[in-house]
Amino acid sequence: MADDKQLMAQVKQWILEAGEEVKRKLQDPLIVEQKSSRTDLVTNVDKETEAFLVEKIRSHYPADQILGEEGLGDKPETTDGRVWIIDPIDGTINFVKQRENFCIMIGIFEDGLGKLGFIYDVIKDEFVYGGSGTGVFLNGSPLKQIEDVPLSEGLVGVNGTMFVNNYMSTRNVGLASSGFRILGCAGLDFLHMFMSRQCAYVSNLAPWDFAAGMVIGHALGLRCSRLDGREADIIGERVPFVIATPSAYEEIQALVIAAG
Amino acid sequence: MADDKQLMAQVKQWILEAGEEVKRKLQDPLIVEQKSSRTDLVTNVDKETEAFLVEKIRSHYPADQILGEEGLGDKPETTDGRVWIIDPIDGTINFVKQRENFCIMIGIFEDGLGKLGFIYDVIKDEFVYGGSGTGVFLNGSPLKQIEDVPLSEGLVGVNGTMFVNNYMSTRNVGLASSGFRILGCAGLDFLHMFMSRQCAYVSNLAPWDFAAGMVIGHALGLRCSRLDGREADIIGERVPFVIATPSAYEEIQALVIAAG
């Protein structure tokens, strides 16, 4: 517990430092490259931020494993020991096109169990971090308890492609809610969840997209899993993922099952 | 010109004052009512903010006509003289569920010509206002010129229902872009346009949704019209509407025409 709190304070400082550097670099032209397609981008800042965080972890905790979106960590094959999962810039298209609406995210796991999560909206300066052992904080203050909002009374964040194709009932989920939003950054959807500004988020996520949000979500009493109800694998493939209030989670599971 | 500048300064102050009051009222429980459906809401703050603005206009400019979303103004049947178009809380569902991501908007027209527009994201404190005669300002500083970003290189905001149904090619527009977003507040999409954070916005809008954005957009060299290319009527019905950079506007018109 005391160790968790110290680790939380340390990682929080690293991320704040990384955020300052990101803001500074936004003054200069970005170097933007395509990854798998013209809408899958990476910039020098994604890579440099991951390098900064990997270096911090390696120098302080050399025995730990690291999974980073930009591949500067390891390729963990087991979840034994301590595993760090990093998304240096979540929402890279927003970062490039809007220079806002992106997050830095880290999830920390021990023997597969979520210990700490960190999600930092750099430009809005909204930083949520913590876990079950430490409690969860928003910019230094304990976060209020989540309201158990049912699907019909809350907003939901969706993945646009899943929504258009009604993949695994995603469109039905959106239409059963008070309204659906597409933000282009998983971290922003998780932050909305933690502040009771949304009751659910359904998307197709890689471990670096959901690791931090899953740890914090569980600590706050939210439900999260693969959309089919199975547990999400923190060193696995990209999967349809859901985080929701307990009530909305049950309603979403019923919609997914009804659709077969 | 001098008169426009004085009017701009005066209305800006009214809106800032209204914004302070809105923030104060967000501390108290809201009184929420349904209008046409469970996702079409109005609150006491929508009505009170419109009443405040209507009273200001009436007391200073009794000869002017006012069209307000909540119906506290007039029902203008002509665009003769000066017409004020008010959306006291644009994005009411966001306002109720998120307590952020909403705007106060006013458009001012003289004999049908756009003179001044005001869009204020109250919580983010991002306020864009002005017109062709005065220039356009962001929180007191002249706004930089818009970049003429083509559709493939920019983000677009879309209306969810139009997108799902590919109504008038809206989905094709989204898929031809760098990414599509659904924000639930027209004012936020207009602000993204003015800051070159988006290259287009396609939605189904009433005059109070587009009046302010159209005036400011024209002053900044953006194109805007009904989605079919006809001029939008500031005292008319809700219509499919587009605002875009000159390049993206031409591409969108071609997609709409291709779809018939």
UniProtKB/TrEMBL annotation, chains A, B:
GO molecular function, one term: metal ion binding
Pfam families according to UniProt: Inositol_P
A GO biological process held by the record: signal transduction
Cofactor: Mg(2+)
UniProt entry tagged with the keyword 4Fe-4S: no
UniProt entry keywords in alphabetical sequence: Hydrolase, Magnesium, Metal-binding
Binding site for Mg(2+) 1: E69, D87, I89, D209
SUPFAM superfamilies xref list: Carbohydrate phosphatase
Listed transmembrane segments: none
Residues that bind Mg(2+) 2: D90
InterPro entries, alphabetized: Inositol_monoP_metal-BS (IPR020583), Inositol_monophosphatase-like (IPR000760)
PANTHER family: INOSITOL MONOPHOSPHATASE, INOSITOL-1-MONOPHOSPHATASE-RELATED
Record protein name field: Inositol monophosphatase
Organism: Vagococcus acidifermentans
